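Bench notes, bay 3.
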Amino acid sequence: MTFVAGVDLGSGRTKTVIIDENEQILGMGMARTEADFDIVSSKSIGSACESAGISDDQIEYIATTGLGRYSLDRRDIQITELTCGGRGAHALFPDAHFVVDMGAQCTRAISLRDGGKVKSFRTNEKCAAGSGGFLERISRYLEVSIEEVGKLSLEANDAQPISSVCAVLAESEIINHVSEGKTVPDILRGAHDSLAGRALSQLKLVGFDSPVVFIGGVAMQEGMVDACRELFPYPVYVPEHPLHVVAYGAAILGLRRHEKRTQETAVA
């Protein structure tokens, strides 16, 4: 059996997915990203190996992606997050041609060609107000854990609008809502609605006209998913493990490269 690992070295967490020659997921791992990418990658890979019931030395090929994709010395290939996100989403939902990847640092809207190849994309990397980092700042200000944000948002009765496209000005709006006695759920739902609106604007720029796959850490928040499903004009698919989709795509692309290299070696 062939074992290939995809490692997504993100700004917040480092995720690993191990697959076999049939692209089946055997194990997943995750570790909080630290300054030393080799150390944190070893933790994430080790966790995935334990999940898969294999040893580290049984991995035949490693594909890296994400912010720190060049930093893992033992990698066999590095691939961009866009390419991996598109491939992973397509493998899980072949009928979807659009992807929203919402992480800690940025939100990406991606359109796909047949086969999961990236056709076009838009990103909001210039401002934290359009990403998961904004929700983390809000949760700290409102004194709730980031793990509570998704469920609390669903309890909203009167979502409070957050119109600013600047993170600093948006925080001022939140302060005003608090001073006016607005509830935490209503403020959080307003934040989710704001992020959903910005994601929709990005999707429209890449030709949004059919179902979309929602991936990334923010897709784990129920309130965020609900906001997108309420606003988007087409179905929103959410994978069982949205945080690991990019790593899964890296593993699939790594498997294809490993197979090609093996065939070339056999011919030679």
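Next record in the batch:
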Amino acid sequence: MNIKKYILPAAVLGLLAACSTSEITYRPAEQKLPQHIKRISIRPFANKTHQFGLEEKITLKTIDEFLKNGEYAVSPENSAQGVIVGEINHYILTPIQYDVNLVPTVYKLNVIVSVSFLDKSANRYLWEEPALQAVKMYSASTLPGGMTEEAARESLWEILAKDIVKRTVEGFGSATSASQKKIPQNMPPAAENPAP
């Protein structure tokens, strides 16, 4: 009987059994902003939707979240080393449940924004999140515990602003977007996207 023939398969099985009981989690290394960036500006968001006034609310909420976080000072764009550039791409409100009279009782609000971070000294974008998304399902305001569309929007602005701050402060892999989670290598220079 050849014992060597059984040792290798037994070792492999033992290793697989040990791995199956432990949790394996992917944690990419942090990629913080360059050290020369101390002050950040939030450029007013662009609004590509048909809803009026959304850009002001998300811009103000993002500024508030950066102030709450406190890791980077918030300043006007002319004195900042980094700039958050954002655009609201989609605003979709869909009734998803109706009562017996076909009056909507539950809605789903979906907002998608694209956000990038401009390093002014290098004149290039350090990261981008092309499809940062927030979804809110809520009952109509006429029902107990329901809310208005405006209140649902406010909760989405808070979610998106926190994601933007988290992406900026914690770096690579921290936001949930459709992006490829990498720092772009061949982004066009920022001068091609003039300030509003």
